[in-house]
Amino acid sequence: MKHDAQRAQLNTRQSEILARAEASGFVTIEGLAEEFGVSAQTVRRDIILLSEAGLLQRFHGGAGVIGSTETLRLDHQHKRSMAVDDKLRVAQAAVALLPDGASVFFDVGTTSEMTASVLNQRPGFRVFTNSMRVALAFDPAQHDVNVLGRKVEGRDGSLVGEEIMLSLAALRFDFALIGCSAVDTEGRVMDFDLSKIAVKKAAMKAASRKLLIAAPSKFGRTALSAFAEISEFDAVVDGTPA
Description:
Blueprint: H1 2-8, H2 12-24, E1 26-28, H3 29-36, H4 40-52, E2 57-59, E3 62-64, H5 76-80, H6 84-96, E4 103-106, H7 110-119, E5 126-129, H8 132-136, E6 144-147, E7 151-153, E8 158-160, H9 162-170, E9 173-178, E10 182-183, E11 188-191, H10 194-206, E12 207-213, E13 225-229, E14 235-237
Parallel strand pairs: 4-5, 4-9, 5-6, 9-12, 12-14
Antiparallel strand pairs: 1-3, 2-3, 7-8, 10-11, 11-13
Helix pairs in contact: 3-4, 6-7, 9-10
């Protein structure tokens, strides 16, 4: 009800900005300024107003819908039910690359959750993650499970906060299993959620070996921001035969 009242107070341009963000997941200041024929500063003020009203999430150069900007309306359970066979093949292939007793960082996401479930069948790993769902996939009697962060954000059970970045700066892993929203045709690994991108980069820096875990549907797509080149990974695990 509160947000309905706030929407009613928006002017035409602000309503259009909000509609475009909700339709595509995010908008850029530069693109909106060109589209509406106004200055970037005018658009920036609109976005600040929408952000303060709790209708949009600001980021450098633009804004996105509140929470995870990729298909916000998709329930997490629905995401988990998508491309299950592909995710299982990715999980099995990734787990096959992990030696017994390795220390492993798990990224957030449904592919990571599937990989965690498969790895749980082999005891003796030291696991680090910023995903509550990944952590819960492991039997703590069989694995050393370490959860990074304090504040849970979103239906995917991801944790956010400065504590994660500080922890990652001090840690070293044998492997980091990193997920993504897209890999474009130029080999850029991309994601929609800027708060998670910083964690991905820090985890990659802390790992001796970096594995990209991504189902085939992720390739040939684009997302909001690139966080790595595909060549930066020691292996790309997409579940297809080598």
